[in-house]
Each structure stands twice: as structure tokens, then as C-alpha cells.
Fold each of these.
Amino acid sequence: MYKHDLLIIGAGLAGLRAAVEGVRQGLNVAVITKVHPVRSHSNAAQGGINAALTDRGDDWKDHALATIKGSDYLADQDAVEVMCKEAGEALIELENMGVIFSRDDDGKLGTRAFGGQKKARTYFVGAITGSALLHVLYEQSIKYDLHIYEEWFVTKLIKDEGRISGAIAFDIKTGQMELISAKAVVLATGGAGRVFEPSTNALICTGDGLSLAMQAGAPLMDTEMIQYHPTTLSGSGILISEAARGDGAYLINSEGERFMENYAPDYMELASRDVVSRAEQTEIDEGRGVDGCVFLDLRHLGKQFIEERLGYLQEVALEFRGIDLSESPIPIKPGMHYIMGGIKTDLNGATNIPGLYAAGECANVSVHGANRLGANSLLDTIVFGRRSAVSSVEYIKSIQDLTPDERLLSREKSRIQSIIDRPKGMRSSELRLKMATSMTKGIGVWRNAESIENTSQIMKNIRGQLSNVYVENKGKIFNTDLVSFLELEFMIDVAESICQGASARLESRGAHFRTDITSRNDLEWLKHTIVELSDQGMNTKTSDVTITEWQPTERIY
Ligand SMILES: Cc1cc2nc3c(=O)[nH]c(=O)nc-3n(C[C@H](O)[C@H](O)[C@H](O)COP(=O)(O)OP(=O)(O)OC[C@H]3O[C@@H](n4cnc5c(N)ncnc54)[C@H](O)[C@@H]3O)c2cc1C
């Protein structure tokens, strides 16, 4: 058995920021990750990170209001206040650690505009912001000599006497399975994009942490809030960052019209993502698209500007579509990008289970509500990653050491072995594709009672078939076939919880737009949906939204 004070599951930005803080606070910290840390999905973030810097004449309250309006008033306003107040310090600290942010003409930190905000407060490193941040935090983790279980896969959390005291995981490289004991655990496992197909997310974004938490008894919140990003390449689902529109790109339909004028005349292309995605889908549905797409037009920005500020996007466009952005518009459509919902936590990342914390995309604090603003997620990972480690310190100091029961490890070993031993059956890839395409069809930009119910039934059927899946590779070394199956088990939990949330919420708010109930209903639904696991299956209830000073009003862009 391995032993640590604090075990962090996930080595993306939330996990590494939590880990660095844990060491600074004097804890024995370990990080566990199913891929090399810099291959975490945070690496793919392009556009930037939001912060209201006071020396720019910016005001955190302005950022908070934009975030709350963006969330369609579903975000908890105390959490948004914390995030926006701490943003400036968090950003400068990243710079001090070594992030080389892009500069403006005066040599100061440069900004670009992002959607849902009138003020340009998105700080960036070209179009590789996430990669730059992640590499710097990884350097810090080496400096602090953190223990990293690299390419280890967590299958279960250990719960003893009502509290979390570690996790069970296996080394993907050797198959060796271990119980890792810890006084507290932070889940920082990232998003669940692959529950949908296509998605902008990496193949590793399978919502493992949401399922691990739910299985341990922690509730998930607002899981129906799935963000469809307005600009993804058709087919592959690859993201074309909002940085393009932030830097001036237009959206046009098949007739060459900047159609956002009809939907969001004030903010145009930079309205909130849910608003822009619905506008695009309406254009496509009403026949003003081409092959299910509308177009992103950068031609007027000029070749030099595109290559300097958006070089990575130019590369993607050339490589995947053979299109030079300075010469032709590129076909795009809304695509699944982010899950606003997640493991319910307080302002310090604590869940309802002693010893269990969550931060980053897997968590729901809740700062994004029904729709996340672009560039607020990187901020969320940094602010709440740090806070979760700080709050775990007090808890760790207050508890008695517990030695987890080793029998839990043998039970989990037998469970995994019994999966490997299944002689024949279906392949997990078949079910994975069926699950993910059905989710996109039924829980898409539009949804209604019928589509949600159908999808829910499909997920139940797929769950029923999981015991028929077999793993072809019977070996121990790099058994990615086994990993895929275990991920599918996690994803089905997440998919069902999304259907539960979507079916419960009888209104349209933010990313959850029901064609059968098209308006927002603050009287009955200014509420979070909460999905919990019980012996009978998943239950849904609601809880109140925290309002501090911003009363809900009509949301016009
Ligand atoms: C293409 C793209 C572009 C984006 N651009 C931006 C942007 O410009 N600005 C912005 O604010 N946001 C952006 N986002 C969103 C943002 O990048 C993510 O929400 C954020 O980086 C998530 O960070 P994280 O630390 O929570 O998780 P991740 O970075 O996804 O890391 C998850 C970690 O958990 C580990 N893990 C998961 N399951 C297990 C398991 N079972 N066992 C062991 N380890 C496990 C993984 O190995 C990984 O290390 C973008 C997202 C995408 C997909």
C-alpha cells in the first residue's frame, strides 16, 4: 500500500495547481494521471484566461456580472465573486511562475476579446495558452519534487467510516494494481466530452471523476448543462478557438450575410456561446447553411495578422480542410465542447463526503451555471485548484489516520480480472459509439421531452449490455482495451446523469434549450438539478441558486 497526505487524481491545470499548493502547505502530495501530465486536455486550450486587472481600469464586478449573465443566472453568485476577485492575483502568479503571456504594442500583457463580455480581458499565449500554462505548472511540479503516478488509471475511491481515504488504481504500463491511501483526495479528472460524438475534447475526457464521485455517494449538479461551441470543424469536431471571433472574424451564412445581426445585434459574433450556437443551428435548419455548416470568415484580417495571432488555427485549417484562412471562409458548426455540470462542491472544493474534494472541469462550484463564458474555465481550474488544496490542509490536520481495509483491493482486483476473463462478447467501441452519437442526437443544441426520454432509454439499454462486453487483450502491459471498457462504464454513469438532469429541468435556460418549453422560468426553475445515486438507481432533486447582488433579468445580447 502506498501512503500520502493528499492524493490528487488528475494532472491537468486543476490537479497540478492543487498539487503545487499542497506541497507549499507542507503536505506529502501525490498526483495520479492516466496520461503524461502535459497530455492532459488542458494542453489543448487555445484562446486564453480571463482576469479583470485593476491597473487596467478593469473591475472584477464587471467580470462577475458578465459571467452571471452568461450563466443565464444559474451560477452561484458567491462562487463567481470568489473566482473573479482572485483572478488578477492568479494570473500574475502564473506569470511569475514563468508563463510568457503575449504582449501588446506597449510591452504590457496583451488582451483579446472573448464572448459575452464587452471588455477585452482575456490574457493569452498566442493560440497555445493551455499548453503554455500546463508546461509551466509541470515544471513547478518537478521543482517541488512531487510524486507523480504517471500512466496509472484510478478505478475506485476508497470510502471507510463515511470518509474518503484513498483510491485503487493500476499502473497501465505493467498492470500492477495498488491501494493508494491518502487522508484526502482531490478529483481533478477534467471533462466528459467523449460521452458525445463528435466533441472538441481529447479521447481521454471520459468523465471518470464524475462517476467515481457519484459511486462514492457525492451528488452531481446541473449535468444537463452541456456547452456546444459555435465553431467546430464538421466531421472531426476539432475546435476553431473563439479567439478567431475575439480577434474580429465574422460568421456568415450561405448568402454571405453576417446573420448574428438578427440574433444579437449588440454583441454580434461575441454573444454568449449558447446564443451563437442556437443562431447557427437556426440558420442551418432554415436552409441558409451548406452541408450542415455555416462559415467563419477571417479574410478581412489579413494573412500577417492571422499568422501572428492565430497561427495555430491557420495550421488546423490547412491540415484538416486544406483551407488558407486568409483566402476563404471555413465551414463550421456547433459542437460539443464542455460540461458546465459536475461534482457539487462548496467554495473550497469540498464535496458532501469528508475527505473528498473536486476542482476543474469535473467539479461544479458553480461558476458557469447554464453556460460558461470562454476563457473562464482555465481561470476556474487555477482558482479552485488552489483553494481545494488549501481547504484540505485543515481537514487533514483535524483527522485521525485511517488504514484502509486491504480487502477492498482484492475485491477490486477480482472485479477487474472477471472482466478480462470474459471469453467472448461485444467490443466496447461498438457501445461507445452508439452511446456518444445518441447523446449528441438527443441532448443536442435542441432537446425536448421525447428526445430526452429516447436517449435515456438507449443509455439504459447500453448499461444492460455492459456485462456482454469482452476485452480482447488478456495481457497486463498497456491493456488499452481494458482501459477503454472501464472508461465506458464511467461514461454510461455520466450519460445517464445528463439525461436525468435534462429530463428534470422543465424550462429552457442557457445551454439547455427545450423545443417543447422554450422559455426560462425563474419562478420554478431558478434552481440547480442534483443527481444522486441510491440503491434504486439515480434520483433527481433540486437546490437553490445563491444570489448575492445580481437579480435575474432578461438576457439580451
Ligand atoms: C480544444 C479545447 C480548447 C479549450 N480552450 C479553452 C480556452 O481557451 N480557455 C478556457 O478557459 N478553457 C478552454 N477549454 C476548456 C479547458 O481547457 C478545460 O475545461 C480545462 O483545461 C480542464 O482542466 P482540468 O484540470 O479540469 O482537466 P484536464 O486538463 O482535462 O485533466 C484531467 C486529468 O485527469 C486525469 N484523469 C482522468 N481520469 C483519470 C483516471 N481514471 N485515472 C487517472 N487519471 C485520470 C487525466 O490523465 C488528466 O491528467 C478548452 C477545452 C478544449 C477541449
Amino acid sequence: MTDFAKTKSLFHLPAGQVYLDGNSLGPLPKAAVARVGKMMQDEWGDLLITAWNRAQWMNQPSRVGDRIGRLIGASAGTVVMGDTLSIKVYQALASALEINAARKTIVSDTGNFPTDLYMAEGLIKSLDKGHELKLCEPDAVEDCLAEDVAVLMLTEVDYKTGRLHDMKALTAKAHEKGILTIWDLAHSAGALPVKLDAAGADFAIGCSYKYLNSGPGGPAFIYVAPGLADQVRPALCGWLGHEAPFDFDLDYRPGRGIERMRVGTPPVLQLTALEASLDIWDLVDMEDVRAHSIKLSNLFIELVEANCPDLELASPRDAMHRGSQVSFRFGNGYAAMQALIERGVIGDFRAPDIMRFGFTPLYIDAEDVRKAAAIIEDVMLNRLWDSTDYFTRSAVT
Ligand SMILES: *Cc1c(COP(=O)(O)O)cnc(C)c1O
């Protein structure tokens, strides 16, 4: 059994706050401060350029990728780190479209995160081969899987509502029709057990700064199914994805397997912070995380619904169809969230009316949930949100 009191003690959690936003930016692992400091001093400081070899910086993206692989059911050598998630969306989609070149339709859903859709639109324009992005309603995705579809590209857990797609079933349906799949795990990796190899997913991508706690701007990961990676022709042919970067050939030759999805110089400081977080993840069983997350989110729904009639549940009630976040709709949700943040309950707001709360068992327990629910009740019943200060929108909501 995972010792969640122990994992909680390993994070820096500011006093007087209940942090329900680890689905957007994970908190600081205490050990990351010294770990990154030491790396800067001993490696960057003292070893300088020789650290690429002597401190193994060059293979850090695959080393760290393998550690994340354990959390998402991906075998060794199928995951690599680098760039941001938006870039990884582009890479995965470009490669999948090239493999399925005879087909021109990309299917996604209206619950997908905008950047995934924007990257698809941009790629379609630059390819200029008549591709089309078709958006289906999240519960009608299966009906959109026709024989002309090249790629099914979905985010497994909806960033607004927390609705969870059935990755295994949809991947099987897609494959029956010759469709390749791309799964965005932004709200899945570190949130619930994912079994990429077992589900037969073709491509997957995700970020490390949400549930995986790598810090702001931490790099994304990309997975390509075993056996498929060697068929993939990378769209972003960076030198570090080359078969032999230090031959400095004038022509590009893709590297072996997943290595070819690397682009340029890796973010060593961020990857080092992520390694400190992964030391905590090594103590964790994803099945325990799931069981605990369901307990916490069910308790939260029960308490909020019992005491706050103005908040309408926007997430699936059945935990089996939900990721690790709970969202409520409220017309004045932005102001209400500002009032909560001022009182130490940190969630976030997604336009037009979603108040979003993330449940992260590594450092949130039932006591935190009770505390947060009591503050939400106070803010809602006493209309503490109804103050002009809370209506001015900041750049980040
Ligand atoms: C958070 C998130 C992103 C963010 O992309 P970045 O390039 O890392 O800014 C993309 N897609 C989804 C589904 C997300 O939840």
C-alpha cells in the first residue's frame, strides 16, 4: 500500500492552504530545491560542457521517459521527454497522418483542449493536402469513426469536466476501421492508471508539470507504440533526433525508435526537477492513487452538493467515468473562485462558468477536502464572492 502521509510530507505545501490545483501546476517536491541546486553547482558549474557526457545529460530525456513509462503502462524505450505538449501534439499528428496518407480526416471532440485543436488546424494548413478536422460530441466519438478517418486524436480526461474516455474500447474501435490513435494524457499521467501498451494506443503525449510536478514549463513526453516508432518519419527533424547527431551529416537520418521524436537540446534543469518528483512517484502504486482519488472526489461532491445548492455538478457523477478532478458550474464562478483563493482554497476557473478542483492523493487527504468544503460553503451561502474586487479578471484564470 502506498503511504500517502509519507508522500505528502515530501512536498512543500504553503501553510493555511488547501491546494486543489495540482491538475494545473503540481506543487514543489521539497527535494527538488537541493537537487536542482546541486546539479547547477556540481554539473553546470563545475563540469560545464563535459556534463553532457559525465553527468549523463544527453540520455536524460529517455532515462526520465522510462520512469514516466512505468506510470502510464508504457514499456522501456517507448517514451521520450522534450519540448512542450503543443509541439508533441504536432509531432504525433504529423507522423500519424503520414502513415495513414490515403485518408484525410482527423477526428477529435469538442471537449478537447484548444491548443490540441489549434495545432491540428495549423498542421492542416501547412500540409495543404485537403485534410479536415472533424469535432464530435464527446459521447458520440464512436459514431464518427468512418473508413475515411486517418487519426482519432483525443484527450483522455476532459480538462473542463473531468469526463474520462474509454481508451481501450475506443482504440479497438478505431483500429477495426484502420484508424490510428493519439491520446493526450495531460490530465491522466499521474492522475489514474493508464495502460498504453495494453490498450494498443499508437501515439500518446502528455505534460509533466501537472500531476507529475516538474514545475512551470517542465517538458512534455511522447510515446510511440513498440514496433511503430521505426516506421515514423518525424515532422520536426531536429539534430538530436538524428541517428548520429555528432556526425554532423548534412542530411537527416532518423534515430532509432523513440529517439527520433527528440528535437533539440533538452531542458536539463527542468528534467532534474522532474527527477526529484519521480523519486516520490517511485513510492507510489497507481492503483492506490486511483482508489484514493475516487474516495476524495466522492467525498468532495457529497459535501458540496449537500451544502451549496447554487453549484451544479459539471463532472460525471460516476467515478468510473471521471478523471481526478471535480468541476462545478456557477454563473459567477470566476468571482467565487477568487473568493476561495483568498481564503486558502486554491482551484481554478475555466470560462464560461466552470469552477475546477483537482484531487491529488500524493498530498491531499480527506481532512483537506473537509476543510475546503467548509470554506466553499461559507463563500457560497454568505455570498462572499459578491464583491467588485473578485470580478476583475487576471490574465491567467
Ligand atoms: C495543459 C494542456 C496542454 C498544455 O500544452 P502546453 O504546450 O504544455 O502549454 C495541452 N493539451 C492539454 C489537453 C492540456 O490539458
